[in-house]
Design goal:
Elements: H1 3-21, E1 28-33, E2 38-43, H2 46-49, H3 56-68, E3 76-82, H4 86-95, E4 99-104, E5 129-132, H5 136-150
Length: 151
């Protein structure tokens, strides 16, 4: 991991903080080229859009696909603050994302290292390079504090 990766994850964490301020589960995502140029970034908007698919990763993928004019995003890296769920992992596969970097692990709802483990199935058409636990404590603290306030 390098300084640019840290900057991109910091951007994703800022997106997550914005989501928390709106009452959304604090997850943020940034899609960037291999050299660090940001094409899209967003945060969870499930409540705001009344859309169960409005996860940060899905919204960022949609925006990047629109910006590039292609559903295939093979040269891009996705930075996300929480291990993607199975739905988002499948979208990452379909978009042909080059590299997935996530912060906090999600033993309950994750679909990469936990649960469905989408990328490990023989039917998975594309598996990105995966780096988990990058800046994990920052994201985990944000999530823990968010849910503590709601209980």
């Amino acid at each position: 991991m390098n300084e640019k990766d840290s900057e991109l994850m910091a951007m994703a964490l800022n997106q997550a903080r914005e989501a928390a301020a709106r009452g959304e589960v604090p997850v943020g995502a940034v899609l960037a080229t291999a050299d660090g140029r940001v094409l899209a970034q967003d945060s969870n908007r499930v409540e705001a859009l009344s859309d169960p698919t409005a996860h940060a990763e899905i919204l960022a993928i949609r925006a990047a696909a629109a910006a590039t004019g292609s559903p295939r995003l093979g040269g891009l890296d996705l930075f996300v603050t929480l291990e993607p769920c199975a739905m988002c992992a499948q979208a990452i596969s379909l978009a042909r994302i080059r590299r997935l970097v996530f912060a906090a692990y999600d033993p309950k709802g994750g679909g990469v290292e936990h649960g469905a483990r989408v990328f490990s199935h023989a039917t998975c058409h594309h598996a990105p390079e995966i780096i988990g636990g990058f800046m994990e404590s920052d994201a985990a603290t944000l999530l823990r504090d968010f849910f503590k306030e709601r209980r």
